[in-house]
Structure formats: structure tokens, C-alpha cells
Task: inverse folding
């Protein structure tokens, strides 16, 4: 756009002051020089508008609380989910005690079948379908990562509600686990009712121990 031909030296100055004018700025460092031209109005408008928009946005979202940021929405949704989960746990536990788990749930074929389905999907990889926590390879029995659930030994309490709690919360924070392996908190994946179902299934597989 400049009318200076390549052979002509551009004008020296501080800044371009007219549209279309090309200025070669006065400074020079290590032989590096800098041109200057006036920026087009559409560009300047976008630039100043973006600055004004930032101020409006910042005030509305971060100072007046008129709008909530995505982060705040996610945080409050997560809190809501946590609250719903503890409410579900409280209401399941309100109707559940050791007696009920043994004499009503573990003897109810529907609940035991539901528990078995959950066990087959989520638990057999470490505890085995027969609860022995071993896998037969040829005539050898290879141990799986989980503890056996059919040996009458319960590391974290033998009452049905102790077992429920362990499945729900996983290996306690201060426990060492089993051969260095810890179990995850299944409450992250399963509902309290599903955990009660799977606990009933485990009880139903230990009939003698629970007096069934
Ligand atoms: C990835 C492997 C893995 C899976 C899958 C797994 N567990 Fe475990 N489970 C373990 C380990 C390891 C332990 C021992 C943890 C410890 O001692 O702290 C354990 C311990 C237990 C215990 C305590 C046993 C005892 O003798 O005290 C119960 C009950 C149990 N699991 C139930 C379940 C149920 C129900 C599921 C499925 C919902 C499940 N586990 C899925 C690895 C697993």
C-alpha cells in the first residue's frame, strides 16, 4: 500500500501517524530494525472490545456472582452427587442390620442372584467364581490378588455389616492390604443396594459360618 518503491529508503520516525504510511523506527539493535504502520480500525475495534469484554465478564463472573463459572457448576454438581450418595447410603443402612442381611437378604433368592451377577461382573477377577481367590492352571492352583472369601477368615470384621463396609469403602487408609494389594472402594461404582446384594451373595456362600 505504501507508495515508496523498494529502492527508496522508508521514512524514519517513532510511529506511523497516517493510514498507509510506513515508518522505519529509529532504534536498531544488532542490525535488527522495525517497521511501523497504523493498524486498521476493524482490528483496533476488536482489540478494545475484547478488553472491555474481559472487564465485564470478570466482574459478572468473579465479583458480583451474577453468573457461575463452569468450575463452580462442576463443583456444586459433584457436591450434589456426593450428598445424594450419602443419603442413599444412609437410607439403605437405616433398613439394614446384621440380622436382616443374614436372615432376609442372604436367604432371598432374588437378592442372592442379583448379588451373584454383580460378583460375576466385578469381583471374580480377583476373588474367583468359587470365592477361593485361586485359579486352576493344570493341576496347580495359582493365587489371585484378592483374599479368599470362603475361608471363614475376615481381616476387617466378620459381621455382615463389616463386610458391607469394607466392600463400600475398600481397604482402610491405615491398613497394609494383602500381599501388598489393596482393594478399591466399590461405593464409587456400585450403589449401596448393590453392595448389600453382593454381601448377601457372599454370606449365602458361607452358610455354616452364618448359621444358615
Ligand atoms: C482388583 C482385584 C479385586 C477386585 C476386582 C475385587 N477385590 Fe475384593 N479384595 C481384593 C484385595 C487385594 C483384598 C484384600 C484387601 C486388604 O486386605 O486390604 C480384597 C478383600 C476383599 C474382602 C475382604 C476379605 C477378607 O477376608 O477380609 C471382601 C469381602 C471383598 N474383597 C469383596 C469384594 C467384592 C464384593 C468385590 C466386587 C464388587 C471385590 N472384592 C472385587 C482385590 C479385589
Result:
Amino acid at each position: 500500500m505504501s507508495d515508496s518503491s523498494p529502492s527508496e529508503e522508508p521514512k524514519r520516525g517513532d510511529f506511523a501517524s497516517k493510514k498507509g504510511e510506513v515508518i522505519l523506527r529509529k532504534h536498531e539493535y544488532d542490525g535488527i530494525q522495525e517497521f511501523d504502520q497504523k493498524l486498521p480500525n476493524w482490528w483496533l475495534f476488536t482489540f478494545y472490545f475484547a478488553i472491555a469484554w474481559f472487564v465485564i465478564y470478570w466482574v459478572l463472573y468473579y465479583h458480583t456472582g451474577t453468573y457461575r463459572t463452569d468450575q463452580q457448576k462442576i463443583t456444586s454438581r459433584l457436591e450434589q452427587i456426593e450428598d445424594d450418595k450419602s443419603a442413599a447410603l444412609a437410607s439403605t443402612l437405616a433398613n439394614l442390620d446384621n440380622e436382616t442381611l443374614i436372615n432376609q437378604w442372604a436367604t432371598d433368592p432374588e437378592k442372592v442372584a442379583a448379588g451373584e451377577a454383580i460378583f460375576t461382573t466385578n469381583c471374580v477377577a480377583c476373588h474367583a467364581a468359587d470365592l477361593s481367590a485361586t485359579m486352576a492352571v493344570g493341576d496347580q492352583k495359582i493365587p489371585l490378588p484378592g483374599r479368599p472369601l470362603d475361608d471363614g477368615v475376615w481381616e476387617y470384621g466378620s459381621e455382615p455389616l463389616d463386610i458391607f463396609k469394607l466392600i463400600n469403602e475398600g481397604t482402610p487408609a491405615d491398613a497394609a492390604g494383602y500381599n501388598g494389594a489393596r482393594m478399591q472402594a466399590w461405593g464409587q461404582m456400585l450403589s449401596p443396594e448393590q453392595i448389600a446384594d453382593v454381601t448377601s451373595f457372599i454370606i449365602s456362600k458361607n452358610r455354616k459360618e452364618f448359621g444358615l
Notes: The mean pLDDT is 93. Residues 11-63 form one domain. Residues 119, 122-123, 125-127, 145-147, 149, 153-156, 163, 166-167, 171, 175, 177-178, 181-183, 186, 198 surround heme C (CB under 6 Å). Residues 70-94 form the longest helix (25 residues).
